[in-house]
Amino acid sequence: MISGMVGRSNPCPCGSGKKYKKCCELRGGTALPAPQGDPAGEGWRSRGLSALLFLLILAATAGVYWPMGRHGFISLDDPQFVPENPLVKAGLTAAGLRWALTTFLSGNWYPLTWLSHMLDCQLFGPNAGAHHLVSAGLHAASAGLLFLALARMTRRPWRSALVAGIFALHPLHVESVAWIAERKDVLSGFFAMATLWFYARYAEAPRVGRSLAVMTAFALGLMSKPMLVSIPAVLLLLDFWPLQRFSWPPKWPGVKGLVMEKWPLFAMAAATSAQTLRVQGSAGATHTLMDVSMDARLANAAMGYASYISKAFWPVNLAVLYPLHKEPRYAGGWGALLILVILSVAAWRAASRKPYLLVGWLWFVGMLVPVIGLVQVGNQSIADRYTYLPLIGLSLAVVWGVSDVLASRRLQFLAFPLGITALLFLGGATYRQVAYWRDTRTLFEHALAVTQRNFIIQNNLGVFLEEEGNSDEAIGHYREALAISPRYAEAHNNLGAALAPQGHLDEAIIHFRETLRLNPRFLDARYNLGMALAAQGKKAEAEDELSRVIAVAPGHAGARRLLEQLPDNPISRPQRHPPRSQAGDPSSVKQICLRT
């Protein structure tokens, strides 16, 4: 640690003007080092420098994301969030407000996210480009707030600017910014950064008003996306470094007061976690141990951490979806776990000399826990969007670690060109990645090009192509999905729905029956089977299937109408399983459950 301990009767380093023994020591601290300036001149020089760096961060973010203004909506989840959601499209209305506060559509509760979409529609209508630019603006604002918060805590504006620049320009964050359905990422990220900034002010001079500001920002973040539940733990890490509100090794008497002052935050986080688990379970978004064993979850979790670290340093071959492996991968899992243990032990042992390593590492590991797959939600093994806030911790550890290594070897002059080179590389990669999000076909075809055996995207691309009128090409993708995963019920149903209008009723019926064998609750497939049987003149069998549909869904207009028309046996358009979540429909099994 830095020399220059603060005596109990000396002024408190938090800046409150009180003696240390009557200020931070009462909140559980000990005699801590006062923040020191950088001998190389990397100190808190002026408000002008901070303003300049802040504006540069905003400008760089705007530069790489500006092309999104020409992008449209994509067929994956976007429709239920904006273009096909009448309450959202109506803008800010009383009915929309009531719905936003009470709905659990997509298996989560995030009313502020819904209200932000409504506000966009109120201001811009269905203009997808404007919606995209709002997301980019929120991301840029979050990067700016991150810089201000870190600079205030550390008194190191250049290093703080580099961390914020990595956050702003890293390609892993393109998914969160360029996907309308992931507005919750950038909105919750904005409130998370506001929480950090308010907490930096609170730590300087604890006051009730500043504490309320922290709690308010955190509550708004939870109302945007529940992943922020780990923020109270992040604040506790920041108490150790850079705020230096307790020393290492930590002792409960010195930490107790810091934990207790955050009890409202921990209470909100616990309540949000409990509600999220309940809602996602009732919506069918979570997998049981019968679907994905605990062995497979642990292996996927360890390999997930390794994948995120790899992509953080070499962000190539990024895709909208990486399929989940439901069988345990023991060799890769044990290797990844060994890497995690080695890094964790190294960070722990260096905590007294290089505290930023432990803080950054635990920030990264801890914030990923809710989405690492121990509670498996959806069919993705990892997802770029999950790194949106966790990657800040890893960036913090790397930037401070490399900077200190260069300083110790009198190579400080390399810090600036290395930092600029890293940002230019990330910015260029992000600019390219943004282009893949311009439309659905480009996005899906890129995912197939950079991933292997991606049966979900094969199926989803088939759905998109069929909607565009390319049935033959769609059938090819459905068959490819089934060649990879023969038990993929949605692809069986979609293939049957594509074959039936072409007159291949016998083959279509085979796929509908296979869908129901794999998932007897798949209502669309049962309805499709009833239609196909009716078209073949098999009235009794068709009536039986359609009656079972109505028994489960009494309001199913299509099934009722077809029953009334028998024995005329008209064939309607079969129902495909679209490439988006259908939360709230008990018959729908999510192809991609992205609601986290």
Description:
The protein is built from 26 helices and 2 strands. The protein has 596 residues and is mostly helical. It has a two-stranded antiparallel sheet.
Structural class: mainly alpha
Pick out the low-confidence regions.
Answer: 1-6, 26-44, 580-596
The strands making up the biggest β-sheet line up spatially as 1-2
N-to-C SSE series?
HHHHHHHHHHHHHHEHHEHHHHHHHHHH
Distance between the termini: 39 Å
Shape: elongated
Q: Biggest sheet, in brief? A: 2 strands, antiparallel
Number of strands: 2
Q: Which strand-content bin applies to the residues?
A: under 5%
Q: What is the tally of helical segments?
A: 26
Mean pLDDT reading: 86
Range of helix content:
55-70%
C-alpha Rg (nearest Å): 27 Å
Compact description:
The protein has helices spanning 47-65, 78-81, 86-89, 94-102, 111-124, 128-154, 157-169, 174-178, 183-204, 208-222, 231-240, 252-260, 263-282, 294-313, 330-349, 355-368, 390-408, 415-435, 440-450, 455-467, 471-484, 489-499, 505-518, 523-535, 539-552, 557-565; strands at 322-323, 380-382. The chain is mainly α. Residues 1-6, 26-44 and 580-596 have low confidence and may be disordered.
